[in-house]
Known about the structure:
Layout: E1 2-3, H1 8-19, H2 26-47, E2 60-65, E3 70-75, H3 82-89, H4 96-104, E4 129-137, E5 144-149, E6 154-160, E7 166-173, H5 194-204, E8 212-221, E9 236-244, H6 261-272, E10 280-286, E11 292-298, E12 315-319, E13 322-328, E14 340-344, H7 360-384, H8 386-406, H9 412-415, E15 421-423, E16 428-430, H10 432-437, E17 445-450, H11 454-459, H12 461-468, E18 474-476, H13 481-488, E19 490-497, H14 503-514, E20 521-530, H15 541-553, H16 555-564, E21 571-574, E22 583-588, H17 593-600, E23 614-619, H18 624-634, H19 638-655, H20 663-673
Parallel strand pairs: 2-8, 12-14, 17-18, 17-20, 21-23
Antiparallel strand pairs: 1-6, 2-3, 3-7, 4-5, 4-7, 5-6, 8-9, 10-11, 11-14, 12-13, 15-16, 15-18, 19-20, 22-23
Amino acid sequence: MRKFKTESKKLLDLMINSIYTNREIFLRELISNASDAVDKLYFKSLTDHDLKLEDEDLSIRVSYDKDARTITVSDNGIGMTAAELEKNLGTIAHSGSQEFKDETEKDATDAIDIIGQFGVGFYSAFMVAHSVRVISRAFGEDDAHVWESDGLEGYTIGDAERERHGTDIVLTLRENEEAVDGEPGEDYDRYLSEWALKDLVTRYSNYVHHPIQMMVTKSREKPKPDDAGDDYKPEYESYTELETVNSMTPIWKKRSSDVKPEDYNEFYKSTFHDFEDPARTISFHAEGTLEYDALLFIPGRAPFDLYSKDYEKGLALYSSNVMIMEKCADLVPDYFSFVRGVIDSADVSLNISRETLQHDRQLHAIANRVEKKITAELEDMRDNDRESFEAFFENFGRGLKYGIYSSYGMKAAGLADLLLFWSARDQKMVTLAEYAHAMPSEQKAIYYAAGDSRERLSKMPIVCGVLSRGFDVLLLTQDVDEFTFQAMRTYEAKDMLKVFEDDAAREAAQAAAADGAEPARENRNLELKNVASDDVDLETEEEKKDAAKATEGHKDLFETMKKALEGKVERVAASARATDAPAFITTEGPMSLEMEKVLSKGPEATQENMPKSQRVLEVNPKHPVFEKLVSAQQSGDTEKVSRYAGLLYDQALLVEGMLPEDPVAFAQAVCELM
Length: 674
């Protein structure tokens, strides 16, 4: 027996048990090696004019013998001499494919796609096999040779018989392992079936550009006997037939102009297990320091588990048509986690197991380009197919909003213009840009209200008051909405009509526009303001003075009301807002009532750690109820003032979609009042 030309036992043990994390990739590695062998012979035919060889003459065959517990991978490629068996298989981590690639790099054509790089893929066979035989006959040689090893100390090389050039790799599988001490066992028998081998081929090696063939069991109807009666029932028989089980030509390598939309749709549905066509398909080829092909799909509907912790995002990563990772999460950001697709590049630097990338900068470069392409496609959908974009946003808009919130607003520049919200004035979904361009010239902020339904929000006194002043209000109804706006703080509205604070400058601009000049434009940062916050500042100076006068003139009344509410509010004051409501709740600081409500439903929320909003009870001094309060205070009936304060506060909570702290006491107070 010959010894391996390294610290064999340690290195083989490392490769079998540590380098690869998934046993089933052994077939991917062996097929990749076979593909390289076929490519080497094809390359030789391009340089040796005496060698007549057509690409379709070359193939790879996979077979199994259940009784003998063997799996065989055969090719009719370049083959190996005894010296080459010694050099390539006897020296661990020596890559004959890489050596060939280096030697022929200047002369290589697009038809040659060498996969192997590290020289360790062959040894992945020992993850499932207790012994491996390699029978090979080099092209142009009369003799064949066999290499055998159990993957422990060494190997043997001897003479063998093989009719034609090429290589057979025969794996004798290990015995099944039982579970021990809670550790799962290993079922090696699962590889000894036609279905399992076909599945591994189509999953990992479907786009190797040589035919991968297998004897496949099929069924056919037997001929009807001549003497069969009217009650004859058709009979069927099984037979086997050699079939190519891989697709060979990946759809993402074809020009998009050469592929029909229905072909893309069919690929998407069959590959990503969806029954609906994708909303959009994005296909592009990138060149430069990093060359790759990308085929991306924006689904037509959201998968049921999209927002669950079990959902796995990521694009399929291929290298030279061989699948490396089924879902490479780093290729797509979380807020585009719904995107499905494929990235294929021969230039990425893979680690030794070819399961992950070595250089983050390459991954980062691809991910950046992918993100830009997705964003551009969504912008095109928004501008040119609004109905489809609104359907998309209904499915996936929450993820875009969360992308802004989770990045503390850092991603707002790229995502804010993709957001849609309901316009209370226009009664339709609008973008922030559309809202900004429809604003009156005196409006300096974007106003919104947050709650659980459009219907309730549109009837709220505070919203109606803002609308009555001629300003639109965005109605936010998803739990993430207000958190997103809090993270953004402002929105940069581009290409707005310039607002001139100086009268002379404004008159000059108006005169120029009258003479046919283009109106001056500017980008403007607009604050995002909750209409229920205390700093909306839409009131006129006269309204503010009247409210301040009422607050000061009835200071004792408001103190009595605040005391009656027992720390539920920061203060009670007369309101300057134009509403028909007797009273309503606003908040001071960043925490709104809606945010408090959302946080209170969290899994870890308790009475002790629950953040509270700083509430203000604003009383309408023009409402008849205010006169009753003033009268009660003046007559010294503090009990009535306290009871009325509680009723006004609780009904204001109900308007906000929140229950009073004591619904029973509220109901009793209403009955007593009646």
